[in-house]
Amino acid sequence: MSGEAMLVFDEGLTAYDFGHGHPMSPVRVDLTIRLARALGVLDQLKVVPAPVADDALLRTVHTAEYIEAVKRAGQDPDHPDPEHGLGTDDTYCFPRMHEASAHVVGASVEAARAVWEGDVLHAANISGGLHHAMPGMASGFCVYNDPAVAIQWLLDHGAERVAYVDVDVHHGDGVQTVFYNDPRVLTVSLHESPTTLFPGTGGPGETGGPDAEGSAVNIPLPPGTGDAGWLRAFHAIVPDVVKAFKPSVLVTQHGCDSHAEDPLAHLTKTVDGQRAAYLALHDLAHQVCDGKWVSTGGGGYAIVDVVPRAWTHLLAIVAGEPIDPETAVPESWREDIRLRFDRVAPMRMTDGRAPTYADWSTGYNPDTWLDRSIKATRDISFPLLGLDPTY
Fold it and tell me: Which Gene3D superfamilies does this one have (predicted)?
């Protein structure tokens, strides 16, 4: 499938860097690219550099006042601007912050453009997925909202409907906010319960604005949810709502912070469960929109043991050549980890788990938080999309 799928990447994208000690280290992107290259995944992809989004493109989602605030903060990082969410406890200021953030946006828009204009069928920007940024404020490590700008670009260039599916452990609140009252965009987010995790939103009752009821679908999951529960929830809701919406293109966000080893959240998925989710989204793109699929990265803070393997699986699926989970991690990559971090890297591309689950059709168990949550979302969202919430 070489030439039919694309990765938008250049080394400049690792300049999105909040500095030493911040959990969102650009090292995770670098390590992913190195692992994907060592496994031959990049040979299956058309790799192109990312343009830098100009102000006019950023203003399709962000306010002019906010863009100017980001520029000022990047020129003088020692003076925070909490009114715009800049220089806070989670979103630090750093030099040339505007340029680095606009570069990430440019990468996602280039991926969207290539898919929409037919250059490739699938395209990815693993440095993207900055889904918490609001039109006028930074939030949750996110300065500019690259998925939202990419979706708006698709709408502005003829896409009648865009479905956005977010599998990050945190609610995709920024993307939802941007399109909450736009009936052309379906936002679907699976995330840890807002009662236990930032940003505290994403309940099943958040279903879209008055002109777009049903356009937001939220599936909050109990802390501790692993592969079986996560996949049960995904398959009980996501394929049905996306198929009902009939999008022209599928945009997805692949934060891998739902893993058991992630230090910032409380789900217990494995790399194997994350790979299963990526495969399901790939298949869904082919079922609903002729394969038009734009994928981004997102969160993920176990930067050696989890992120590189998870996103290398994602890139391999984007390329149409999934990696066998039992594949050995190349010794050259493991040696690099030993020399750079003085630690032992994973031996294989698997966590040794089979990502099986009980389909929703097997029955509803009201005694479990998970099933009550799934049922709440189905009961609220399905009728708004013309679906029957029963089994």
Answer: Histone deacetylase domain
